[in-house]
Every structure is written in structure tokens, then in C-alpha cells.
Write a structure and sequence with these properties.
Distance between the termini: 32 Å
Organism: Cyclobacterium lianum
InterPro entries: CrtA-like
Strand order of the largest sheet: 1-3-2-6-7-5-8-4
CATH architecture: 2-Layer Sandwich
Helix content: 25-40%
Protein name: Spheroidene monooxygenase
Number of strands: 8
């Protein structure tokens, strides 16, 4: 279980066309500076998909930076660091969701990145799902992507969702933000998404997977993170 202080952030950076090659190169070049960020326990810089949830079409203008911080002071200070400022200077816009993990199972590259706190979601809830597919199941997975994307696009209570990942098709994740836990569970257990999950389990598509839930927080403790539509 985590201390009350651990903070998770995910920032979506949108780049103008002239800076997209720079942004793509940061997938490797930014690793060393990000490792030096004070108080960071885990991070992933990822590309994004162009549809709802998992997507076959990349969004070449948008990149996601997921970070886990020891406490909110380190999280706050990151926005004044050289690593962050370099992203901020090159992008057209960015938005950060600040969260605390309340549930997590599975691993990400054999690590358990999130330490859940003993807290229930009484309002909005965020979810990160991540999977590394077996090579033999990639084509099977890709045939299911359109149905899953359509279900996500029409999901009641969904505020925002974005497909994220380190490698197209092989290492995929999704970030989603819901009005409350009931809407999220309705989508997970009473839709086309449920049928896809059943196929995943029955046919053993994944080498590794992770599921985590979060609640939004504000770093000044005054209000929850603002919804993004």
C-alpha cells in the first residue's frame, strides 16, 4: 500500500507540425533527462493513437508522459525542471491529469509502478490499462480494435480517453477518465469491451498486462483535477 503522498501524473503534449520530428526523437533522447528528475519513481514517454482507446491510426502530433512521484512537492517542482521546460517550449499545448492510485494489479515491464492507497472512488475515476501482446496474437488483436474503439467512443459517462503506448500494436495502453466508477464498470462489464476481454483471457493474447484505477487530485489540495473534453 502507498503512503498518502504518492502522486501520479499523465501529461498530453500536442505539437505543431514543424516540431513533430523533434517530439518523435524524444522517445529516446528524453529518457536520460527524465531519469534525473528528482523524486520520480517510474516514468514512460509514449506515443498516442488517433481514435478512442486502442487505435490502429497513430496520432503523430500528441505524446503522453506518465510519471509516478514520491510526493506532491516533487510533482510540483517538475514543471520548473529543464526536462519539462524543453517539452513545454516545443509543444503547442499540454494538459496534465494529477491522480492517486486506489487499485492496481499486474506489471509493466516486470515492475509494479503504482502503489494503491486505501481509498474509495466517490466521484470521478481514471483508469490505465496496459498490455504487451504475444507476437502470435497481434493479428487477432488488430481485428478486434475497431469494435473496441466504437464501444469506447459511445460510452456513457466517459469524459476523455486516449490510446497510449511504447510500440504500435505490441505494447498498448489506454488512459480513460470517467464521471464515476459506475459508468466505468458499465462499460467494462456490459458492452462489446466485455466480449473482447473474454477472448483475451480464453485465447491468452498477452505476455503481460496491468490494470489500475485512480482518483483525481489537485496538488494544492483545493480541488479535483479539471475534466477535459
Amino acid at each position: 500500500m502507498q503512503t498518502e503522498n504518492e502522486i501520479v501524473s499523465i501529461t498530453f503534449f500536442e505539437y505543431p507540425k514543424r516540431n513533430r520530428w523533434w517530439a518523435f526523437n524524444q522517445m529516446q533522447l528524453a529518457i536520460a533527462p527524465l531519469k534525473k528528475a528528482r523524486g520520480v519513481k517510474f516514468f514512460k514517454l509514449m506515443g498516442t493513437g488517433g481514435g478512442s482507446g486502442f487505435s490502429l491510426k497513430p496520432d503523430l502530433k500528441t505524446y503522453a508522459l506518465l510519471m509516478v512521484w514520491e510526493n506532491q512537492d516533487f510533482a510540483k517542482n517538475f514543471t520548473t525542471s529543464d526536462a519539462y521546460l524543453r517539452f513545454n517550449q516545443q509543444c503547442k499545448s499540454n494538459f496534465t491529469y494529477w491522480m492517486q492510485c486506489i487499485q492496481s494489479h499486474g506489471t509493466w515491464h516486470s515492475q509494479q509502478p503504482f502503489s494503491p492507497m486505501d481509498k474509495k472512488a466517490t466521484g470521478p475515476v481514471m483508469v490505465i490499462t496496459r498490455a504487451r501482446l504475444k507476437w502470435s496474437k497481434v493479428l487477432r488483436f488488430l481485428t478486434q480494435v475497431p469494435a473496441g474503439s466504437r464501444a469506447a467512443a459511445g460510452a456513457e459517462g466517459l469524459i476523455y480517453t486516449k490510446g497510449i503506448g511504447e510500440w504500435p500494436a505490441i505494447e498498448q495502453a489506454t488512459f480513460s477518465y470517467w464521471k464515476n466508477q459506475q459508468f466505468m464498470e458499465n462499460f467494462a462489464y456490459q458492452s462489446a469491451h466485455r466480449d473482447i476481454v473474454r477472448k483475451v483471457k480464453k485465447e491468452h493474447w498477452y505476455q503481460e498486462e496491468l490494470f489500475a484505477r485512480f482518483v483525481p487530485v489537485s496538488l494544492d489540495q483545493s480541488q479535483a483535477a479539471s475534466p477535459r473534453s
